[in-house]
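Supplementary Note 3. Input sequence used for the single-chain structure prediction.
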Amino acid sequence: MRVLIAAGGTGGHIFPGLAIAFYLKENIPDVRVLWVGGNRDTDSKVLSSHGLQFTSISMQSWPRKFSAKQIGFAWNLTLSFFQIFFVLIRFRPHVVVGMGSYHSFPTVILSYFLGIKSLICEQNVNLSLTNRFLARFASRIAISFPQTKKFLPSSEIDKIYLMGNPIRPEILKASKEKALRTLGLKQGTFTLFFLGGSQGAHTLNRVGIETINLLKKEKRLKNIQVIFITGRKDLEWVRECLKLTGVSSLVREYLSQIQYAYAAADLVICRSGATTLAEITGRGLPAILIPYPYATDCHQMENARYLEAQGAAYTISEKDLAAKKLMASILKLLRNRDLLKKMGRKSKQLGRPRATEIIVSLIQDLGKN
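The predicted structure, written as discrete structure tokens, is reproduced below.
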């Protein structure tokens, strides 16, 4: 079977696609996977490092404000249709999988007119602009949140499958004991995990450091240790600040074995991108969510509100984010371990750990028809 996956731009689209690609290659004999993405170096480096066959197209995101960029967009869109046409003719996929980024747009539309089955995946509560356009052209639509159905036309209801967001299997397998040992952290110590996303988040880094300093003044650092994923720009600054507090910590720009950080964590303070939420609910972790305020259509806020409504997380908007407010939420959970455990159970109930397996089964069914 030949499967083409179209994704790029951000980790929120790339990592679920990688989970699908790995599962296909590990569990289906003689499968061939081709990845179609953007021409950014980051896309090609990530994918080539995982040994995937990769080709790029010129597609770029739609400029939402009227400007001269729309002329460039129109040209690249036209060029992308020609590029993907030849890719489809050469590779002859049985199934095309669009992960919701703009690279999916020409790929799924041309697949429709060439008679190739397609699946589009929506990771967030709100539909991406690309998936709104593609819903009528796709053979199947996989969604991660039940509310997403209301954003889809009733004519497409028979195509919709609630499956969850694919995550890598190692996220679920790591044990707490091995994780703490691997990361050089203490056993039996409450572990806070600050995660700003694949690129880091300066605001979260800054408020996180201020919060740790307030916890020090409250003399609450004795039984706390910290994992901090900072992004490249803030790495040394965060590392030096945490040294001054005296808190036991692991500080990294990026952690490729992120499964160990999740396994070690007792509480996660993070953005509310769809992949992050799939990973923390897959592990059943309580969280304090700070949605990225500039995400398209405020989709991170919608994601966070869903978890909060289900009792699995607290949400603090970035405009309301302050060290005292964050510390108060952390202390509330430190002092009330029953509440912390309840949030963890609610998180676990929301997790869909078999999402990758089920989506691959759907891909196989599409490939047979």
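The first helix runs from residue 11 to 27. The mean pLDDT is 90.
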